[in-house]
Amino acid sequence: MRSMTGYAEGVAELEGITLEVSLRSVNHRFLDLRLHLPDQLLLLESKVRKEIQARNPRGHLDFRVNLEWRTATNVVVDEDLIAKYIQLFQKLGAQHGLSSATDMATLCRLPGVVALAGPSAGREIPPQLEAAFWKAFEETMERWDAMRAEEAQFLVEDMRERVSGIRKALGQIAQWQQEMLPAIQRRFQERLQALLGQPGLDPTRLAQEAALLADRADTSEEILRLQSHLTQFLGLLEGEADAGRKLDFLLQEMHRELNTLLAKTAGLGEGSLPITQTGLETKAEVEKLREQVQNLQ
Fold first, then answer.
1. 61: which residues sit within 8 A by CB, 6+ positions away?
2. Residue 56 falls inside a structural domain
3. Do 45 and 88 have their domain in common?
4. What is the pLDDT of residues 142-196, one digit of tens each?
């Protein structure tokens, strides 16, 4: 089990260069992977994307690589490119009647004009640099995965405790339901007597009313299904790595069953108030579980 929330860094050293890799992730329904590689490593972008996708099917991920030169480096200026820029600006100025004056500060900010000496984008990556990158990459991924596993463990422990509390609450509701059974039966009989007193009563309608009253008073099916969902929920927490979506589906089903249970309880009179209160508290616990599940892979 893994959380979708995590952060990790990895560092590799080369002669005169420090290579830093970082990965930050937060929860999201789908995979949203954003890569930020320096020009010197752009040729690796496709492979890096595949490596991360293979390990993480969901979440907002921000992957960054930074190269820092520890020693003095030579600055390279592409004078031919500057000349082409100036020629282009002069041509456009003449065509549109605009001033073509351009200062050096502006020219130096244009793409490709100024660069540090070393490997460039679009060229073969030096083997030592690529090896250092993959070393830092693996280090980062291992730390990131360990942090997500640790975070998930905290979430799982919290959810186990909440499930235990929900089980106890459902047991209490079932007990109160049994204690209320005599009162429910009296209400049922009073309603039937009122129907029997109506002249010209259709026997079919009487049977329908009797079945409807019995169904409205019985929450045993909802409690049984809720207990079953909780068992499946705990099983997924124990035995499946990427169970986030399945857990969320089960919680939606629990929410629906609790709504049905509360709707049935509402018509049972004042004696049903403890059931209603506990049902509302249980519903709130299910919502908290859904919040936790949103962070799981």
1. 23, 24, 25, 31, 32, 33, 34, 52
2. yes
3. no
4. 999 999 999 999 999 999 999 999 999 999 998 888 877 666 666 666 666 666 6
